[in-house]
From TrEMBL:
Classification via Gene3D superfamilies: P-loop containing nucleotide triphosphate hydrolases
Protein name in the entry: Sulfotransferase domain-containing protein
Entry keyword annotation includes rRNA-binding: no
InterPro entries linked: P-loop_NTPase, Sulfotransferase_dom
Taxonomic classification: Bacteria, Pseudomonadati, Pseudomonadota, Alphaproteobacteria, Sphingomonadales
Domain of life: Bacteria
Residue span(s) of domain Sulfotransferase: 32-241
Entry keyword Lipid metabolism: no
Transmembrane spans: none
Keywords carried by this UniProt record: Transferase
Any single Pfam family the record assigns to this protein: Sulfotransfer_1
Species whose genome carries this gene: Sphingomonas brevis
Similarity comment text for this entry: Belongs to the sulfotransferase 1 family.
Length: 257
């Protein structure tokens, strides 16, 4: 089973993967980085994680940022879709202090790189979104809203467990709710993409505060994103999504899920 998520260090970028691992192991915490036990396909070779190695529980799980077009086939896929403005701001915060010197690049300048292909798997937000939207009715694809992961984790836990074929009882539900809370993840922040970050960045950790568990609320871009960038994202949505697919905006897409 592969968990697909829009990139960024916000709280729920990690929550889907951690939710799955908690469900299949009933709360295993014996690891230093979640990517060791739920391998990230694109970075596995770089950090020395064997994708074919045995895993701790069934079903096997992997993380990826790839579009449906390029992801390895033969799995079940859980995909969380996020407002492009929030996804953009989240990616910016992930890269600053990781690969970018803090204060070196403004949001406006960073947008120029993001719009040319930054985002999931380096393939760009729009290609990624359209590829998964096209297969949303396939029985091995489960599309979730990032906002729902924030607002109603219990419902998402139940859907994920059912989709993955994991028996869910009240004890496991309560445990998964506790373990995927922001408070718990902040308390155990070292488990969530910290140990492997220097390897992924070839040792370049440029002032990263290690806080890979950020608030990540729905619509949090509104307090940060410049109006000029928001307007450009709206224009791209119109061209890439609204006109060809008939979906006016991301809220309309969420409602269709």
């Amino acid at each position: 089973m592969t968990s697909r998520q829009a990139p960024g260090p916000r709280h729920n970028q990690r929550t889907g993967v951690w939710m799955f691992h908690t469900l299949r192991t009933r709360g295993d915490m014996d690891f230093d980085d979640i990517s060791r036990v739920v391998p990230w396909i694109e970075t596995s070779q770089l950090v020395g994680v064997d994708l074919n190695a045995p895993q701790r529980a069934s079903p096997r799980g992997f993380k990826s940022h790839l579009s449906y077009d390029t992801i390895p086939k033969g799995a079940r896929y859980v995909v969380s879709l996020r407002d492009p403005k929030d996804a953009f701001v989240s990616m910016y915060h992930f890269m600053v202090g990781f690969m970018i010197e803090p204060g070196a690049i403004s949001l406006e300048d960073f947008f120029e790189a993001w719009v040319l292909g930054g985002g999931p798997g380096g393939e760009g937000y729009w290609r990624h979104l359209k590829s998964w939207w096209a297969v949303r009715h396939e029985p091995n694809v489960l599309l979730l809203s990032y906002a729902d992961l924030v607002r109603d984790r219990a419902a998402c836990i139940k859907r994920m467990a059912d989709f993955a074929g994991i028996a869910l009882d009240d004890v496991l539900l309560d445990l998964t709710l506790e373990r995927t809370s922001r408070a718990y993840m902040l308390e155990h922040v070292d488990h969530f993409d910290v140990a492997l970050l220097p390897q992924m960045a070839a040792g370049r950790m440029l002032g990263n505060d290690r806080a890979q568990v950020r608030p990540g609320t729905d619509g949090d871009h509104k307090s940060e994103i410049p109006a000029s960038v928001a307007e450009r994202i709206d224009a791209i949505w119109e061209k890439e999504i609204a006109i060809p697919l008939g979906i006016a905006d991301f809220k309309s897409l969420e409602a269709m899920l």
